[in-house]
């Protein structure tokens, strides 16, 4: 690397240490992004943004990273938008073919994020990164038409995560717009979009993002995933209107419509992750278990390996409990590696040792039931790596049996994280006895697996 002529003019005695460091860095064939950023932060405390950008210009050719977050550079001068644009232009002119992951992101809660609209000069510079595959921006928001134009000119782009202005035009019944939308995003595999913070204040504005998600499902069949960030919209309606085969790998559905949606299952052969809300307010039967017919429908998702059941608890006006049989889930979805459930009660009377595909088990009991669970059956899948059980009751004998099985290397032989949270509605004496047994169980896991203490937890809620 050669020292920029303009840099020579910047050398003054007050900054001699900076320029000594600069010359050393320039003698290296390459410089890591971490080293570069630390050096630029040092420069920014003594120089204005134009001088710091000259230093970056002198060092950028030695940067070998394929991923950058522009915010790491622009946060040095947060009030200088010209500096952010200057840095983007430097990377676009000198590193456009090298960068494959481009971010302009800061840490912010989506509901509090109201970023300025991205200027055409900036997104035009972004289109120069012809090899970028992953683009993630939350410091600026896009009009949908600008996002479409930008993506159309980035041939390698397949994942985007952006903030979209709820005032964007979305002409869902216009054939020409549908064609332009489909053409602009035809190579995108993951389409993640966040509402602006102000959109969370109004149902009307939030409905724009639901329409955008449904519109994307129906008109972008090559998508693997489309999700609004910070909102859980159901996809059932759009899926039921699907007439072409989709490559979606993630679906979020409402169980109420499962039977109606069943005729369209063949349009979604690639689904690997399924989130189902199981709250059925119109069912008043007593002693009701999960609707087995609906659960059996999930057999149609032959590639399913990640299953999430939410709202699997009774509405307050119902007196019965929602109960699910884990053995039935195994028989319905034999390839599951991840199972997450929020439920009133679990039927775990059968040993699950044949559930060899299961790696991640997360069950939250949302009930006032006094029934005890059979812990060793829940922990019997032989390849479990992560276990999280919360809100349940267990007997002292049940803990002893689990500890014995662990010591005998009959269960949890591959676990890396283990968390048990008991309900606290017991007497002080019983609680003390259970806590002692819990400590023995924790020690048995730690001794067998030789993992960090922070990875194993046993406590009362």
TrEMBL record:
Top-level lineage group: Eukaryota
Name of the molecule in the record: Uncharacterized protein
Species annotation: Cloeon dipterum
Lineage of the organism: Eukaryota, Metazoa, Ecdysozoa, Arthropoda, Hexapoda
